[in-house]
Give the backbone structure.
Amino acid sequence: MKRPKGKALIAQSGGPTAVINASACGVIQAALAQRDVFTGVYGALNGILGVLQEQLMDLEREDPGQIDRLKRTPSAALGSCRHKLRALERDRRDYERIIEVFRAHDIRYFFYIGGNDSMDTAAKLGRLAREVDYEIVAIGVPKTIDNDLAFTDHCPGYGSVAKFNAASVMEAGLDTEALSTHDTCTVHEVMGRNAGWIAAATGLARRSEADAPHLILLPEVPFVVERFVERVQSCLAQYQRCFVVCGEGVKTPEGAYLGEAGGAFATDAFGHAQLGGAGEAVRALIETRVGVKARTNRAGTTQRNAMHFASKTDVEEAYRVGRVAVEAALGGANAMMITLERHAGASYRCGTGLVELEKVANGEKTVPPEFLAPDGMGVSSAFTAYAAPLIVGEADLEIAPDGLPVYARLRKHLVAPRTGRRYNVP
Amino acid sequence: MKRPKGKALIAQSGGPTAVINASACGVIQAALAQRDVFTGVYGALNGILGVLQEQLMDLEREDPGQIDRLKRTPSAALGSCRHKLRALERDRRDYERIIEVFRAHDIRYFFYIGGNDSMDTAAKLGRLAREVDYEIVAIGVPKTIDNDLAFTDHCPGYGSVAKFNAASVMEAGLDTEALSTHDTCTVHEVMGRNAGWIAAATGLARRSEADAPHLILLPEVPFVVERFVERVQSCLAQYQRCFVVCGEGVKTPEGAYLGEAGGAFATDAFGHAQLGGAGEAVRALIETRVGVKARTNRAGTTQRNAMHFASKTDVEEAYRVGRVAVEAALGGANAMMITLERHAGASYRCGTGLVELEKVANGEKTVPPEFLAPDGMGVSSAFTAYAAPLIVGEADLEIAPDGLPVYARLRKHLVAPRTGRRYNVP
């Protein structure tokens, strides 16, 4: 299949992860090695915003050593954004602007590293490009700590956030154990708005029954106050302490986020809505309903960037899907996302595959019931078998003599605009 | 000087740290090697509570491999507590009970690993013992992430919490940079109720001007709303983002904790007191007064147990002060705490010294003005010179094939009670 000659553009989207830069590194290094096809390798500053605003970086001008260091650098070195494009069906202007920018710079390959929304954008972009007869190859590279993309066994970024949170829960669990006569309960809030994959992963820290976490609350399982209170009480009776992991997206049976519920139980204690998220709500509930002291941890953005204890498996796979994206583009794929496909068998092996962007865009994968304990407040052995291989190995880390990591910093050489107009991003 | 023969008792007190077990390991291993003096080596279960309740563990019956693993295990493996004894001046019962337990088990050496309060307890215990003519050697081993003990250059536990938080701020800072078009500000709350040493340490992450943290709020510097808002605004003008580190104990000029202030500025936004601590209060303030989106991180108890990225310097010093405590006891010291004494000179070297427990008990060391930037919202080069050596080196970490750390677990063999009575802890 004949491939167009032209520039490759790489963009990163949505929440950063420990390994989204490893994927970018894979794309960049693979693309730079194919100069017969790629007449240039560009990066979009701050994701799709940079495309709309025509802020494109020439990645060829970066130090190759810094590019290689992206493998060991968390967050999104090209910049990211949470900008939502206007719906193509109602307003084509954003998409037309993207094509305008692509055309002006002869961008023929678009590698978009992101989640559902990004795959949706890339799919629509490809559709519009065909309509206006602009040849473009769009390949999606999966990324999300939430692990909620369909059609892929798991998502790069998940293994590392899982490993860090599991280690943190193991460590904070020892704290709760040591101070159980005083701080009897700990609520550890983790990310995951709609899916409980991250919360579930902390179950990997529980090597024996008495270990933290004792209870895991996931967005998939409606939070029933009485049932929860009862489980905390029985946990206290058994272990004299209770360590609860709470996904930030845990909801009441009525579907309200616990972190915003404010209603039934949160107001019991203080007469007003809880701030500070689901973890704070659960903490207040424990203190008022169980009557023991509880405290909260919320790693927040540190968890998704914790390169200092990232999964080697995750980093390697993230880098691989980046390289494979370029190979797929050269091999004739278009409007596809790279997937991770786990091989059958006792030992973990994982290959890659392809799936239509359109399919991914509309799929969301939450934690299935068979991955949960019968009471929904823990994980099953099937989940452990699924998740355990993803956190294996410690990623390479470059540490300076000062005792802190060395992370890449790109120079971000912007190329001169060519469209001749500014575009007002709504 | 003649030393009594008898048992040694080790207790851990207050908030756990990454290295309080390393100190315990130092004491235990050094004591077990001196069987001509120490007729037994006991541990108190959950600190002073275990002494009052006569719950003592025979540490000689533990697997020596697990004892050695304490060097690489966070939290307090013997158990800790926050129990406050009744004031000796008003009510001698608690102290008399301790002497009763010591006498019953022929405990002649008391190694107490803790902070100010523990040193106070140990000092008073020694005083009462002299009054009732019971010979006891009490040696304090410094421990606190807060680094607020006087008479020691720094405290074991501080280097590790500093290193972890600095790395986390470096990593989360890259997140804020990547997503600055959306999550423009991040407030990262760290521990430290009265002293800002931990907050200050995150300044080590700032290798260049544009790096996080841009502003550091310490309990030592009264929080003036207008000044803070102005600094956030100028930071946004300069970097398009602002990363704030906030000590949990930051106070208003009137002396109210920000996390509990609820008053002047917190109610502007929501009409009620802020929950969730100082970080949430600062976040709400940024959103209402500066008008940009902000988010909070609060590592909570994970930060003080983050053995997975602990300071090798810290671990080694923690172990050393444990061993030195035993040597000091054998050498004739009594009612003293081991200190760390930094040698003069360009390269970091640190020895140990001794200070009277009574002195330490009443001292508290906050961050001095010369360690702060002129505006009080950052650190000076003098602070960096002080703190940088403490986070150097990566502590040994044992990682299982499953990708998670292996931490010690003691069997906690309780010895039979000998006092013949139960004691009701108030």
